[in-house]
Amino acid sequence: MPAKPQFNYFLSNIKNQVQKDSKIWKSSIPVSRKQSQKASGISFCYGDYFSAARSFLSANDFKAITSAVSKCTNRNIDSSGIKEINIFQEKHGEFYHPARVEAVVEGEKVFFVLNVAVSDTGKSSMDREYSLLKKLNSDFQSSYLPVVYSKGEVSLNNKFNISMFLGQWFEGFNEFHITCDQTCSGKRIHVWDPVYDNFFLSEKQTRQLYRKAAMILTFYYNIETFEQIFPWHHAAGDFVVKINKDKIDIKLITVREYASMFDNKNEIEKKNIDLKFVMEGMLVFFLNMSIRMRLDRLDGTGDIVWSDDCTVEETLKGFYQALALKPQIPIIPAPQADFFQDYLSVLPEQQLYDLSFAIANRYNPRSPEVPVIKDQLQSHVAVLYSSINN
To answer: For residue 96, which of 132, 121, 65 has the smallest C-alpha distance?
Structure first.
């Protein structure tokens, strides 16, 4: 009988292996950031987590993982070809408890993410996100999003079900956040690298990071239907970064929603979708992105923090860059990036401020971001207006 893969369990890295007889195996983990175990009525520990992950990956003769490995390596791999499956519990998010899955195949390591949802909110979010990732990866030729491979449910002790999906893990990419650097008395981007230790980005790298993040969001914006990836948050670690010498590579690892800026399609159909309306929609998308691009939490979990002014200029560059790459829309005179640049350049500063203020007013008033935005908005628009007209 062919040998089956050996499972090993870890907390975050190889140094923290979790054995079935260890204290950690029986330790409780949070169902979500906002809901306690007691409030949810769900008892969930690390042993449950790893056991459920193993059940999902080994079901149907390891179909989920062997299929994913085969696609990644362009080889026909069955369960006997996988020597080990190492499961690393990475973190606990508001909706998911993601694990990094390492499949060892003939000495080669192939990496995946296994998103695990326990709460009802997390399960609902997972159903939506899995479908959206499949759709966007199908609709767009290039992709800055993870590929998804399979999705399913595992019954835990016949008490409740856990939802999971297996997707692409961006190896070498790491979360980043704004921090206060005492050596230069300013704000810098701090990359969380668990392998080679954390490090700061240079100013040049920081500029590239914001420019490429704006390019990705604009790349997925549908000019004609007004559909966009939203919401997204730097504070939640939605973007990850990889450094190759002095160059920056960026990926967006989650898609919570992909919908029109309008409430429903009927609202769009009732309007006359002319050039003016398309330009106004693009302007709202751009202004909202320019505001949100500047928001983060200090060191990922602290107070809301506002990025430096260079973010504005780079967001504008990334926006134009993506417009130039997108297929030409018949209703817009070619080339569309130049046309929108001309459109922006004639808008008065006060109009940009009024519209930005209206956008900020649509945010949840209880959000801690809102006071920061309104405090910074006038200076933000001044920098934006200057960048547009330089």
So the answer is: 121
Q: Give the pLDDT confidence of 323-342 residue by residue, as tens digits.
A: 999 999 999 998 999 999 99
Tell me the pTM: 0.92
Query: Phi and psi at residue 101, in whole multiples of 5°?
Result: -110, 125
Which pLDDT tens digit goes with each residue over 54-85?
999 999 999 999 999 999 999 999 999 999 99
Question: What residues have CB less than 8 Å from 305, skipping those under 6 apart?
Answer: 178, 187, 295, 296, 297, 298, 372
What distance in Å separates the CA atoms of residue 249 and residue 236, rounded to the nearest whole number? 18
The alpha carbon dihedral of 270, 274, 280, 284 has a sign of positive
Across the range 211-231, mean pLDDT stands at 97
| Domain range list for the chain | 6-168, 204-388
How many other β-carbons are positioned within 10 Å of the β-carbon of residue 245? Answer: 4
CA distance 311 to 319: 12
Instruction: With beta carbons less than 8 A apart as the criterion, state whether 363 and 370 touch.
Output: yes
Q: What are the DSSP E strand ranges found in the chain?
A: 6-11, 82-89, 99-105, 108-117, 148-156, 160-168, 176-181, 186-191, 199-200, 227-229, 239-244, 247-252, 258-260, 295-297, 304-306
> What is the distance between the alpha carbons of residues 285 and 65, in angstroms, rounded to a whole number?
38
CATH fold of 6-168, please? Answer: Phosphorylase Kinase; domain 1 (3.30.200)
Buried b or exposed e, range 113-142, using 16+ CB within 10 angstroms: bbbbbbbeebbebbeebbebbeebbeeeee
* Percent over 90 (pLDDT), the chain: 81
